[in-house]
């Protein structure tokens, strides 16, 4: 029984879903910015340039990411479309965060087009801080699908332990 529980536990590692983030988009966006806005601050932005968190994925877009889809025509799954989508966004020049400063102007100076006002200053490509100035990010949401096999593994271990304890108790009575 212990072997079965161990096998289920190890098997649960194979059920973890892969991250939905794509490492192709930030460099593609950086290249599009360099091409369309040669005077802009050059950096490779974080996933939070278009998403609410570093988890990314569908339904997690911030206002700038929504505009990249709606105005630029960017579709998920094809980073090669970032250049054309950004060109359309530059032509439309929206103000994604509604703070009165257009996206092109904010990106040119390195400010986030999706964080309004002073809070968005230098946040398009923020420096990572270490030590006392650092903060811990909110952990990503729990993947409920992966919890099922993990729970089955724990349940199997509990059952195996109880059976072993019951067998030892019977043998001790003899």
Protein topology:
Elements: H1 2-12, H2 25-36, H3 63-70, H4 82-92, H5 103-109, H6 144-173
Fold and architecture overview:
It contains six helices and no strands. The longest helix has 30 residues, at 144-173. With 174 residues, it is mainly α. The protein is elongated. The chain has two domains: 2-17 and 143-173; 25-129, no CATH class.
Identify the notable features of this structure and list them briefly.
174 residues; 2 domains; elongated
What's the gist of this structure?
This protein is an all-alpha fold. The chain has helices spanning 2-12, 25-36, 63-70, 82-92, 103-109, 144-173. The model is unreliable at 16-20 (pLDDT under 50).
Spans with pLDDT under 50 lasting ≥5 residues? 16-20
Structural class: mainly alpha
- Rg calculated over all Cα atoms: 24 Å
> What is the number of E strands?
0
Describe the biggest sheet?
none
Q: How many domains, as an integer?
A: 2
Backbone shape: elongated
Strand content: under 5%
Q: Tell me the number of helical segments per DSSP (H or I, 4 or more residues long).
A: 6
Order of helices and strands: HHHHHH
Tell me roughly what share of residues is in helical segments: 40-55%
Give the overall pLDDT as a whole number: 83
N-C termini distance = 24 Å
